Amino acid sequence: MSLDNTSHPGGPGHDELVPSRYALRVGEIDVLVVSDGVLSLPGAMLGHNADPAVRAAWLEDMFLPPDVLEWALNVVVVRSGGRTILIDAGIGMDPGLNLPRAGQLVRRLGAAGIDLASVTDVVLTHMHMDHVGGLLVDGVKDRLRPDLRIHLAAAEAEFWVSPDFSRVSMPPGFPDALRRTAKRFLDVYRSQMRPFETEYEVAPGVLVHRTGGHTPGHSVVRLASGGDRLTFAGDAVFQVGFEHPEWYNGFEHDPEEAARVRLRLLRELAATGEALVATHLSFPSVCHVAVAGSAFRCVPATWEY
Ligand SMILES: [Zn+2]
Fold first, then answer.
1. How far is the CA of 74 from the centre of ligand 1 (A)?
2. How confident is the model over 72-86, as a mean pLDDT?
3. How many Å lie between the centroid of ligand 1 and the Cα of residue 226?
4. Residue 128 CA to ligand 1 centre (angstroms)
5. What is the DSSP string of 263-293?
6. What is the tens place of the pLDDT at every residue in 208-227?
7. Which of 9, 27, 139, 182 is 20 to 30 A from 301, comparing alpha carbons?
8. Banded pLDDT at 68 (limits 50, 70, 90)
């Protein structure tokens, strides 16, 4: 895919009919959610430990087709203390898996007036291809600053040297594509990586914190400023995770731990009332978490125009 891809049905460049960015503020911190597009994945991967009949009923209740899950792919840009921070980078080129509707990030950042050269820091929640691939698109590295810092958990970089796929439940072709992309990312960007152990404050009020679970170095980003709070949960929470936090997502490398991480985070967010944004919740994904019986409910935030 080239940087000036104009084949997307929404129309070229600056005049897409469907909005692809949503701005909000958390105290003094500017936050922009940008859509990289949508991934079409098999329905079974939303809960591979769930009874197929229960899973099918959930999909039907959500007005979703029985076999294809349309997964949003959200990226966030944060500005704080003079730094411009890109949190995750979308999928980039289609890795031969027929995912043509994602990979829009670079074009949509341009449409939002964000020059790649203005990005001072990248935070990676983890190294799955739908979170790092955008930085591997032809020509992107040359447009980024040479002193760009890429923050990720040390455990994540270590994991992808020899990744364990024994507990996942992915469609054919995905494990190889994920391995290839992560390896390439390590090769291309290793000198710019700034690994942290447990947590790291990237800019005032912007804290990246390792959770593990989804991958060993999976991390979330906590924003806090002037009494406002927002958490970017990466892949710790999916749409089905509110109602069925114990369902194992097919992309989770340690599903039991991923479910524990999800429950802990949802309980905390329900208690504090802070805002949540996550990679694969429907764009723009800004919501609050409410308790609903023994599970949770996602309460979408009102759009502010
Ligand atoms: Zn993901």
1. 9
2. 98
3. 30
4. 6
5. HHHHHHHHHH--EEE-TTSSTT--EEEEEET
6. 999 999 999 999 999 999 99
7. 9
8. confident
Question: How far is 287 from 230, CA to CA, in rounded Å?
Answer: 10
Tens of pLDDT, residues 4-42: 444 444 444 556 788 899 999 999 999 999 999 999 988
Provide the pLDDT for residue 1: 38
Cβ count within 10 A of residue 34 = 26
Distance 206 CA to ligand 1 centre (A): 21
Give, rounded to a whole angstrom, the gap between the first and last alpha carbons of the chain: 33
3-state SS class at 7: coil
Characterize the bridge pairing of strands 275-277 and 121-123: unpaired
CA of 108 to the centre of ligand 1 (A): 19
- pLDDT interval class at 67 (50, 70, 90): confident
**Tokens representing residue 263 in the block:** 């429950």
Q: What CA–CA distances, in Å, run from 122 to 18, 24, 134, 145?
A: 26, 19, 12, 11
Bridge partners for 122 per DSSP: 86, 150
Model pLDDT for residues 80-113, shown as the tens digit of each residue? 999 999 999 999 988 888 888 999 999 999 999 9
- List all residues 6 or more positions away from 87 whose beta carbon is below 8 Å from its beta carbon: 75, 76, 77, 78, 122, 123, 125, 221, 232
- Assigned token pair, 194: 């700034």
Using DSSP's 3-state secondary structure scheme, residue 222 falls into strand
DSSP state of 218: -
AA identity, residue 29? I
